[in-house]
From TrEMBL:
Pfam families: 2OG-FeII_Oxy_2, Methyltransf_11. The keyword Thylakoid does not apply. This is CLUMA_CG018032, isoform A. Keywords: Methyltransferase, RNA-binding, Transferase, Zinc. Its cofactor is Fe(2+). The keyword Mitochondrion does not apply. GO terms for molecular function: S-adenosylmethionine-dependent methyltransferase activity; tRNA (5-carboxymethyluridine(34)-5-O)-methyltransferase activity; tRNA binding. Residues 194-301 form the Fe2OG dioxygenase domain. GO terms for cellular component: cytoplasm; nucleus. InterPro entries: AlkB-like, AlkB-like_sf, AlkB_tRNA_MeTrf/Diox, Methyltransf_11, Oxoglu/Fe-dep_dioxygenase_dom, SAM-dependent_MTases_sf.
């Protein structure tokens, strides 16, 4: 009994530290908390009810939490990896819920201009619409992408440029059966909306789409999406305010993105097999995804233009400094990063780690300046060389590379795997962050800004972050960076003789220059070689991997941070070929 109590208290402590809204109690309460399992590993109400009936005759586990604890605590084997469940009574729990409830959508919860209409079509109409599709392999207006099937109607949606060619209409028009969708709608909801372009995507369970905003100049307001076949949770993010909302889209629902939600928020779907949602009783549960077919209706804007007040996501008002980025969608950028960043670092991770053992003095100074007891998150920690600095703070590291994380595990560091664009960390929970040589691996300005947005989201008010990125100019005040000084042969790269390579993804391609190592950069977006040195392999036979980089112009990183209204730039400096900023979060 004492051993069980000790284990229970040990599990309560980190939960209390992570969320002050949860108060545990030794006396029976209305609420009962499970400490070592949850929705993420399949423990929902139905599973618990099935399990508790093995020990007691209960038809509703909510009516007798005391009985549930008595018969299951320390006995039921539903915990992680088959461990016994550990339970405690809760005197108070948080009212916050990241998922917008199915039965309680409110305008102050959803992004402005976002309208969700449940049961917009009947089951019969759903069948008719789906049966109107033909997925024949001989159809030249249908595409099989890597993770989904796609059909275009009216005009082809060109993924390489996130645009359409208004001079090249398709033979295939929007199916007439789709007109029935609008018949039962209130005309005040979609006044004068007659779409002329339709994209149909068929998603298998486990697949999703990266965060993106439909091109402002190409399509009018609104964008309308119909979900058939399955429900799903869609993620909405505001780059200006760093807000993130998860919106549940039930099967046969119609989502209307207009105004701010159309122009000022990105939307995407996280790849996973199930979603955490609220059921009809208002209880969180797990819902498995099924095959889902989405119908996205758009109306072309002719001529192309935009007069919106959301410049951060506007292709007209935001002018990228490199033509490549103007034609790279979020989906294409994600594929580029997977092939030329994530996969590469998994291959070269061990060799890369051997060359990354010395810490940068300015990064060390930042870490040592943090108050004792601070919580630090190293976003893109690599082999964890900064996780050993300052024993007086609690440090967490995260990275995409499994190979580099294995090095961290061998060094007994606290780490987890994730993408810097979506940190699985609570809002306002981290005292300080560092991001050293990470953001320059993201292929669009929107994605680089999203990475900074995630850092700001997890920081407490007055929390600070240090960010390092490669500088395009590797020579400052006539002093060469340490990167150039390693060029022992004094080789020079010539701008008009640099080799280029084409990277092909499905029907899209990106052409990027290949940089000559240890020389000055002449391009903003490029591929940097890494020669993998392996024992017993001749030098000329050693593999060469190409890593994608966006090298930053002078002032670019600082200007990117200035786009956030809740940021103060404490310090901005140049350090051995890197642009660096220290920023402070000033408000929510």
């Amino acid at each position: 009994m004492k051993n069980l109590l000790k284990k229970t208290k040990a599990k309560e402590f980190p939960i209390n530290a992570d969320n002050s809204n949860i108060i545990f109690s030794s006396e029976p309460q209305e609420y009962l908390g499970i400490l070592n399992a949850g929705l993420s590993n399949g423990i929902n109400t139905e599973v618990l009810l099935e399990e508790v009936t093995k020990y007691a005759q209960l038809t509703d586990i909510r009516k007798d939490p005391k009985k549930v604890l008595e018969v299951m605590n320390g006995k039921s084997k539903l915990g992680q990896n088959g461990a016994p469940l550990l339970m405690s009574f809760c005197a108070r729990i948080s009212d916050e819920n990241e998922v917008c409830p199915r039965q309680n959508f409110t305008q102050n919860k959803l992004p402005s201009g976002l309208i969700l209409i449940e049961d917009c079509v009947s089951e019969d109409l759903e069948k008719k619409i789906l049966s109107s599709l033909s997925w024949s392999d001989n159809d030249d207006e249908k595409r099989n992408l890597k993770y989904r099937k796609v059909q275009h109607f009216g005009y082809e949606f060109i993924y390489g440029s996130n645009n359409v060619d208004p001079k090249s209409p398709l033979r295939r028009k929007i199916p007439d059966v789709c007109n029935d969708i609008w018949k039962n709608l209130d005309q005040n909801i979609l006044p004068n909306f007659t779409p002329d372009q339709l994209t149909v995507n068929e998603y298998e369970p486990g697949h999703g789409i990266p965060p993106h905003c439909d091109t402002h100049s190409c399509f009018e307001d609104p964008i309308v999406s119909l979900s058939l076949g399955s429900s799903v949770v869609m993620e909405f993010r505001n780059p200006e305010s760093s807000k993130h909302l998860s919106v549940f889209l039930p099967q046969r629902s119609l989502l209307i993105m207009s105004g701010e939600s159309r122009y000022g928020w990105t939307h995407g779907i996280t790849p996973r097999m199930s979603d955490i949602v609220t059921n009809v009783d208002g209880i969180l549960t797990v819902q498995s995804r099924q095959k889902r077919t989405s119908f996205t209706f758009r109306k072309l804007r002719i001529p192309s233009s935009c007069s919106c007040s959301f410049p951060s996501l506007c292709d007209v008002k935001r002018k990228p400094d490199n033509i490549i980025e103007m034609h790279v969608t979020n989906e294409l950028a994600a594929k580029l990063e997977i092939e030329k960043v994530h996969k590469v670092y998994n291959e070269i991770g061990s060799h890369f780690s051997e060359t990354r053992h010395s810490t940068w003095p300015n990064v060390e100074d930042f870490l040592k300046s943090l108050p004792e007891g601070s919580i630090l998150c190293d976003v893109g920690c690599g082999n964890g060389k900064y996780l050993g600095v300052n024993e007086g703070i609690f440090k967490l590291g995260c990275d995409r590379s499994e190979t580099l994380l294995q090095v961290c595990l061998q060094r007994n560091f606290n780490i987890f795997q994730c993408d810097c664009l979506q940190l699985p960390v609570r809002d306002i929970s981290i005292d300080a962050c560092i991001s050293i040589a990470v953001i320059h691996h993201l292929a669009t300005e929107e994605r680089r800004k999203q990475a900074i947005s995630e850092i700001l989201r997890v920081l407490v008010i007055e929390g600070t972050a240090l960010i390092y990125v490669w500088a395009k100019d590797q020579q400052k005040d006539n002093k060469k960076s340490s990167y150039l000084l390693q060029n022992q042969k004094q080789e020079k790269s010539c701008n008009n003789q640099i080799e280029k390579t084409k990277i092909i993804f499905d029907e899209n391609e990106i052409e990027l220059p290949i940089h000559q190592n240890r020389t000055q950069f002449h391009h903003t977006n490029l591929l940097v070689p890494w020669k993998l040195k392996e024992k017993d392999i001749p030098k000329e036979q050693q593999k060469v991997f190409l890593r994608y980089y966006h090298v930053f112009e002078d002032g670019e990183l600082e200007n990117l941070c200035k786009e956030f209204k809740n940021v103060d730039i404490i310090k901005s400096y140049y350090d051995q070929g890197n642009h660096c900023v220290v920023i402070k979060k000033t408000s929510f």
